[in-house]
Amino acid sequence: MLSSFVVTYGQKNNLKLSDFKHRSIWIYKSEKSQTTYCMTGVGFQMADPPARTDSTIDKWILKHPNSKMLPIYSKRTDKAGNIVYCWVIDGGDTLNLYLVKNGIFPEHEMHRIQTWDELSDIQKTYNEPKKEYDKKVKVLIDSISYSTFLTQLKIAQSYARQNKIGIWSTK
């Protein structure tokens, strides 16, 4: 399943979260770094994360001091350099799933960006031509592991909704 893949992949890449700084959903080496990592997939474009985001992330990281980052996709932008969506993992635990299960984000915020071939015809008209798009967007995870993760995201969101946690509460 996903956890065995993640552990193997994480050991190869050895991106230890403790070697980085984080601010909310953003992970970086320094303020001037050309590469910024993000804990949400397409959700990085949202204006402001929910109020409980920082404390929930900090709590998980404290319990998982040996966590690693698994790059899922990268997107080169003109203003910010490279943005890399990553899963933050520690053995079988994944911070990204934890955020969904605790009602911080809906599951679709954790989806990776689409490849050119996955875009609808209408979406293609709003993007650069394929050659330019493919230069900027790189998927770094295999489809089987990603599909498994999507299933786990749906389960996590279902749990949060059924238990009225976070964004799914009636308060």
Structural commentary:
This protein starts with a helix and ends in a 9-residue tail after the last helix. The chain has helices spanning 2-13, 53-63, 95-101, 121-125, 130-136, 143-162; strands at residues 21-23, 26-28, 35-38, 68-77, 81-90, 93-94, 137-139. A hairpin with a 3-residue loop joins strand 4 and strand 5 (81-90). It is globular, with a radius of gyration of 16 Å. Strands 1, 2, 3, 4, 5, 6 and 7 form a 7-stranded mixed sheet that branches. The chain is 36% helix and 20% strand. With 171 residues, the protein is an alpha+beta fold. It has 6 helices and 7 strands. Helix 3 (95-101) runs parallel beside helix 6. It has one domain (2-168).
> Low-confidence spans: pLDDT under 50, at least 5 residues?
1-12
If you compute it from the alpha carbons, what radius of gyration comes out, rounded to the nearest whole angstrom?
A: 16 Å
Written as H for each helix and E for each strand, in order along the chain, the element string is HEEEHEEEHHHEH
Work out the count of structural domains: 1
The tally of helices reads 6
Given helix and strand content, the structural type is alpha+beta
Shape: globular
Approximate helicity band: 25-40%
User: What is the terminal-to-terminal distance?
Assistant: 36 Å
Beta content comes to 15-25%
What average pLDDT do the residues reach? Answer: 82
The tally of strands reads 7
Largest sheet geometry = 7 strands, mixed
